Backbone:
């Protein structure tokens, strides 16, 4: 049973460019969340998708957008890249829960903005 | 969001028990405490969670104070593979599975 898979694993972009990161959730999971982890920091919640809709959003600007497909996979898009967007981007999948449970994380996509 | 306080770092020896503390003095009565860990170059992985009573699983034990204002993650016999950053996490009260990660505790295991 494959876990959460993310692509690409590493990528380099320049300021002002746009990037798309992809995530396939663990088999059977219907909810995908995205996190940003800057070097030396804990992951920060970006947003969550369920039933192809954004259900909750963290404190990130509109340059960060996402999408969930009918097969539950998801994309994270970042426009007008800034140097500060350099980070590890983590995808996590789960079932919608009533208050407990676990998230399964992928190994992340490391984005470097030059 | 409820807030947690953890030591920045801890160090222990291989095959010895490790007790990782967490203070969550603002947590409500219906909040679960979750623990995740992040090994080097990997995404976080779930360790354990609990509400009121002590919990055990194959990875660790979670001891929750009677007033629920603190908890302790217990690794009964640390191995080198347990070296990681351990995060004590209160769940988002809106039930949307948003995890609020702090700085965590960086655990070093000496051989």
Residues:
């Amino acid at each position: 049973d494959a876990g959460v898979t993310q692509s690409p694993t590493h990528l380099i972009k320049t300021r002002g460019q746009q990037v798309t990161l992809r995530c396939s959730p663990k088999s059977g999971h219907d909810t995908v969340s995205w996190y940003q982890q800057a070097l030396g920091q804990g992951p920060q919640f970006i947003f969550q998708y369920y039933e192809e809709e954004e259900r909750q959003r963290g404190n990130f600007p509109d340059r960060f957008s996402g999408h969930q497909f009918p097969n539950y996979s998801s994309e994270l898009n970042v426009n007008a890249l800034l140097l500060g967007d350099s980070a590890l981007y983590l995808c996590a999948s789960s079932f919608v829960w009533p208050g407990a449970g676990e998230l399964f994380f992928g190994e992340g996509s490391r984005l470097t903005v030059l | 969001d409820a807030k947690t306080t953890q030591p920045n770092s801890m160090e222990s020896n291989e095959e010895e028990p490790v007790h990782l503390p967490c203070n969550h003095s603002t947590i409500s009565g219906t909040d679960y405490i979750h623990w995740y860990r992040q090994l080097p170059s990997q995404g976080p992985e779930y360790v354990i969670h609990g509400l009121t009573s002590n919990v055990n699983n194959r990875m660790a034990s979670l001891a929750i104070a009677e007033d629920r204002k603190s908890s302790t993650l217990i690794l009964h016999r640390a191995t080198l593979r347990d070296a990681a950053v351990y995060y004590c996490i209160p769940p988002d009260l809106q039930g949307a599975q948003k995890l609020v990660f702090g700085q965590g505790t960086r655990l070093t295991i000496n051989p």
